[in-house]
Write a structure and sequence with these properties.
Length: about 110
Amino acid sequence: KVLNDTGLLSDKFISYYAYQLSLSMPDTFKLSALNIFPVGNDIKSGKKLPLNANHMLVAGAVQKEKDFSQWIEQLKKTHWIADFEILSLKKDKKNILRFEVEIRQK
């Protein structure tokens, strides 16, 4: 069960999802984080590590809103993505769009 929950028994593992995400992103994206199966917030000594299996967090920046919108449309069409949520989307003082997206796999 532990191996199955972490995705180690899947025929598609971390490198597959990282590669697929990289293919879907415009060249104009600058990633600041790509966390596949991120660890939850409650990390305590001697306790089970809370993995968020089948989740990914993507954070970065892009100059054009159009590029971000096109990427979101691409995510909607991706067969291995169950759903996603835009956690944050803000423009900074230099008019650069900063984003954080959580993706859940099927």
